[in-house]
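Reviewer comment 2.1 asked that we show a complete input and output for one of the modelled complexes. We chose the NAP case, as it is the one discussed in the main text.
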Amino acid sequence: MRTIVITGGTDGMGAALARHYLGAGEQVVVIGRDRAKFEALRATASGPGRARFFAADLSSVAESRRVVEQLRAEHDRIDALVLAASFIRQSRYVTAEGHEASWVLFFVSKYLFVTGLADRLRAAERPVVVNTAVPGTRTDAIDFDDPGMRAGFTFARANAQQRRANELLGILATEADPRLSYVTWGPRGLVRTSFAGEVGPAMQLSAAVLGRLLGARPDTAIRPMISLIDDPAPGRSAYRGARRKPLVTGDHDGRDIARLAALIERDISPASPE
Ligand SMILES: NC(=O)c1ccc[n+]([C@@H]2O[C@H](COP(=O)([O-])OP(=O)(O)OC[C@H]3O[C@@H](n4cnc5c(N)ncnc54)[C@H](OP(=O)(O)O)[C@@H]3O)[C@@H](O)[C@H]2O)c1
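Response of the prediction step:
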């Protein structure tokens, strides 16, 4: 039996994956904020006894760390780590810890999971990380001096920065463990999910209307992800749906990874919020 850990496993594509792997007889650890959503999922899934829930707000550094420690305490081996927690904020939002919420949720927390669980993934026969960060963005998208974007925050800038950082995380993780499969994956088009977030009326309307009209069902959209988890290829790769995309590499990836790791260590220490 494999152990599949899914952040954002209470809703949308994460929940569809959780349901699939419970049906397939695997042990599934779901991470999200809303226990009621998890209980609803468990009530209708097969093999509910194999489902575990860790409640955590992953826009918090402390909560992310706590869950990583809990996972380490309870699991010697993790076969698949799916990073799918999502809460879309169109505007800049600073958490009680003093960090920009989307930067933590869409990158820092993922960094803590991937680096903090590296040895648990290494213990798996065919370890895989699927990071639902749409691949392919500019290689100069990270503001190393101001990753929380106190100056010049826009949704587009923040989104590009997170995507680039998640690709660098893939290089870091696969260099540390060449057996690891690290996939940056985005769906081919819109998926009819909850689109959890705080966005303006235009974005809300287009997500609701376009999602309903054109969006794929979550259980259909995740099929390519299931193939990538069940037959993982060592190394880094990028996909939109089932279609492989070229990896984006920059001239200074090695230097950028070191800068990224250094700024995370600097910024997430409890003594250094904004
Ligand atoms: N839907 C699309 O068309 C689309 C397109 C491109 C990319 N994507 C990407 O695909 C991934 C999955 O998206 P989705 O649309 O399936 O998501 P979704 O339906 O909006 O669900 C989001 C999930 O994240 C969890 N979550 C939200 N904030 C959280 C927090 N602070 N801490 C912990 N968990 C949190 C939610 O659980 P709780 O409510 O329990 O907290 C829920 O399980 C995301 O990375 C998204 O960016 C989606």
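Residues 8, 10-14, 32-34, 37, 56-59, 84-87, 105, 132, 134, 186-187, 190-191, 193-196 surround NAP (CB under 6 Å). We note this here for comparison with the apo prediction described in Section 3.2.
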